[in-house]
């Protein structure tokens, strides 16, 4: 299957329905196999990504064992997620790309937008926006496995107008998909996303790389908001939702409806059960990251703050189930 054919297959339903394709953003300690399956159960997007993984660690004699949990794919996950990698060395990416291909991944996404200072100090993530030569080396390295290699980035590092040279540079690499979080690194998520620049991005794409699919990320909370964005900016091919999933686990529903508390509790129980299955396989993981999800399920409930605090005090999955049981009895 050619690079373009892979992405055509991934988004064929969206194209048939004349809508943008939707994806769940890669998020650290969030978009592992457990939560991807929770979102599949609630309302699945067209495309999933893994949480981002250090390219160097994947083949490092010692560190590679720490990536097993990040890279695990359950057989029920269809379509298979795209692996997102970060780093700064073309050689590291070449080795990692061959390894993830052997593990069954069919596409790679490169993280060129992470604003985390630990990643930036490693000359990776959004730091690549300031180093075109290194970014090109990373892309070429990742292509050594002959898998489709897409890129996720931001408008710039310090200044918005950096996009005027950075985005054309990436488009000239002829990547199959370019995802742009329409803020700079310095802006983090503290200012509204710059939707006013989307039409400029579309024009750049149409001129320099008409075969590249353009995906937009930033402040898009749900399916309906994504549809509206694409209608307002013709030429946008895809919509990526990130933090919106924490406000609504059903964010990808094309026909939204009010979900009962019982449904929310059942979804939480499903995630807790999947977590136990994951842990029983000996895959790296800790209980603490599970706690960051509790706010998703208690939102909108009576005494939500107190309930979330009670859940945050739990130490085991059985503790969580006991609270779920109690709430269901009260219902």
What labels describe this entry?
nine-stranded parallel β-sheet; alpha/beta; single chain; TIM Barrel; 331 residues
Q: Care to describe what's here?
A:
With 331 residues, the protein is an alpha/beta fold. It folds into two domains: 3-247, Alpha-Beta Barrel (TIM Barrel), CATH 3.20.20; 261-330. The chain has 17 helices and nine strands. It has helices at 3-10, 12-16, 33-42, 55-59, 68-71, 90-102, 117-121, 132-142, 163-171, 198-208, 223-232, 244-247, 261-280, 287-291, 294-298, 304-312, 317-330; strands spanning 21-24, 47-48, 53-54, 83-86, 108-112, 149-154, 177-181, 213-217, 238-241. A nine-stranded parallel β-sheet has the order 2-1-9-8-7-6-5-4-3, with helices on both faces. Helix 3 links the parallel strand 1 and strand 2. Helix 3 (33-42) runs antiparallel to helix 13. The mean pLDDT is 94.
The helix-and-strand class reads alpha/beta
N- to C-terminal distance: 51 Å
- Please give the count of helices: 17
Task: List the domain count as a whole number.
Answer: 2
CATH architectural arrangement of the largest domain: Alpha-Beta Barrel
Instruction: Look at the structure and give the mean pLDDT.
Output: 94
Strand count, sense and barrel status of the largest sheet are: 9 strands, parallel
Strand content: 5-15%
**Low-confidence runs of at least 5 consecutive residues:** none
How are the strands ordered across the major sheet? Answer: 2-1-9-8-7-6-5-4-3
Roughly what percent helix? Answer: 40-55%
Following the backbone from N to C, one meets helices and strands in this order, namely HHEHEEHHEHEHHEHEHEHEHHHHHH
CATH-defined fold name of the largest domain: TIM Barrel
Q: Could you state the CATH homologous superfamily of the largest domain?
A: Aldolase class I
Shape: globular
**How many strand elements?**
9
Radius of gyration (CA) equals 20 Å
CATH class of the largest domain: Alpha Beta
């Amino acid at each position: 299957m050619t690079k373009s054919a892979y992405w055509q297959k991934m988004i064929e339903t969206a194209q048939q329905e004349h809508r943008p394709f939707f994806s769940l953003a890669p998020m650290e300690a969030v978009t592992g196999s457990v939560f991807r399956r929770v979102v599949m159960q609630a309302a699945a997007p067209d495309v999933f990504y893994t949480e981002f993984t250090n390219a160097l660690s994947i083949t490092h004699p010692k560190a590679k064992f720490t990536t097993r949990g990040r890279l695990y794919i359950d057989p029920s996950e269809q379509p298979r997620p795209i692996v997102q990698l970060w780093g700064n060395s073309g050689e590291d990416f070449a080795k990692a790309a061959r390894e993830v291909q052997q593990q069954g991944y069919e596409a790679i996404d490169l993280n060129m937008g992470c604003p985390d200072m630990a990643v930036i100090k490693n000359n990776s993530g959004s730091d690549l926006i300031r180093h075109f030569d290194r970014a090109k080396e990373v892309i070429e390295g990742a292509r050594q496995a002959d898998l489709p290699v897409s890129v996720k980035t931001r408008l710039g590092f310090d200044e918005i107008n950096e996009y005027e040279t950075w985005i054309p540079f990436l488009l000239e690499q002829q990547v199959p998909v370019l995802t742009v979080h329409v803020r700079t690194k310095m802006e983090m998520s503290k200012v509204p996303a710059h939707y006013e620049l989307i039409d400029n991005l579309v024009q750049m794409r149409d001129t320099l790389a008409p075969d590249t699919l353009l995906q937009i990320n930033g402040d898009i909370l749900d399916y309906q908001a994504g549809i509206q964005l694409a209608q307002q900016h013709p030429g946008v091919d895809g919509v990526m939702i990130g933090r919106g999933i924490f406000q609504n686990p059903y964010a990808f529903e094309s026909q939204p409806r009010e979900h009962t508390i019982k449904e929310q509790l059942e979804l939480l129980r499903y995630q807790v059960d999947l977590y136990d299955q994951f842990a029983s396989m000996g895959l790296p993981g800790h209980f603490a990251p599970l706690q960051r999800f509790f706010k998703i399920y208690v939102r909108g409930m009576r005494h939500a703050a107190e309930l979330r605090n009670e859940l945050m005090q739990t130490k085991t999955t059985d503790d969580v189930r006991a609270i779920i049981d109690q709430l269901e009895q009260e219902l």
